[in-house]
Amino acid sequence: MATAILTIDLDAIAANWRALDRASASGVQTAAVVKADAYGLGVAPVVRRLAEAGARRFFVAAAEEGVAVRRALGPGPQINILSGHMTGDAPLIRDHDLTPMLNSLDQVTRHLETLPGHAFGIQLDTGMNRLGMEEAEWEAAAPFVLEASPVLLMSHLACADDPDHGLNEVQLANFRAMTDGTEVPRSLAATGGILLGPNYHFDLTRPGIGLYGGRPYEGAAPVVRLSLPVIQTRSVAAGEAVGYSCAWVADKPALIATVQGGYADGIIRSLSGRATLWAGDVPCPLVGRVSMDLITVDVSHLDEVPEALDLIGPHQSVDRLADVAGTIGYELLTRMAPRLNRVLLGAK
Ligand SMILES: *Cc1c(COP(=O)(O)O)cnc(C)c1O
To answer: Average pLDDT for residues 148-160, to the nearest whole number?
Structure first.
């Protein structure tokens, strides 16, 4: 097998969902955010496992993603679309029973005209300035929107991963001011918001990254392991260079392992010359450039070169690797490429 192996622990995803579910009061429902192919891990097996664990509501970014969730789960669970109701979405929303979170007066009009009586929610902008109706727009729309019985009023926090950030409380106050007294179910918290405490939970929480083992949920069970097979090893003499642009030169004789896995697999190029791989418990430095399919690793200090080296695993979480790359775990996960050989643990 010459492709890198991405092991995805579906039982760990289910355990993380249950733990985040327990983090809020018993009357609070816990949804699951599975946009971007379940953060790159494969939406069908992930939603089936989460449904088995008890999840009944799912959030995706676009209607097309919602169709994939419906196909995997069949009728029953509610599938919410964060981008709302875009031009041309009506057939998908109707035929696959999707629930758009409407973001503007335009979307409200489109939805009520094309699919009268079809379930919808409303997304409000409480300070992130990204998606949703702002206060003035909501004030104008609220009377007839509430008349049409939305299933959810939601908003999203911009800085929930930083509990001390002042915007959290500002957004909370804005959300209350815009929704108090409506008697419509409400949702404000993603993973970070759940960790901010019960004031932020309302009726429904929407964890994404925490399910997949990422920050800011430090207590998460690890979900992914990325193992790269060693294709060959070679001895290089002091002064010899390795890889494109001769970016690394041996300062003493070295043993270099060439392993399968490169930027086309999601191992981004900014890891060049910086990342560490693991031979079991022993760290081995990545040397030279990350190329499309391959990386090179200094294994001079190993007694025996193993069949594969771990880039993500027990010694290096996806977030720690993201720190090295100068990015966040979300980005590394969603870049995991289709050609990786995916091994699922705990599939239902
Ligand atoms: C992505 C997203 C979430 C999930 O956020 P995490 O930080 O991954 O938990 C929840 N709500 C909205 C609106 C989102 O865009």
So the answer is: 98
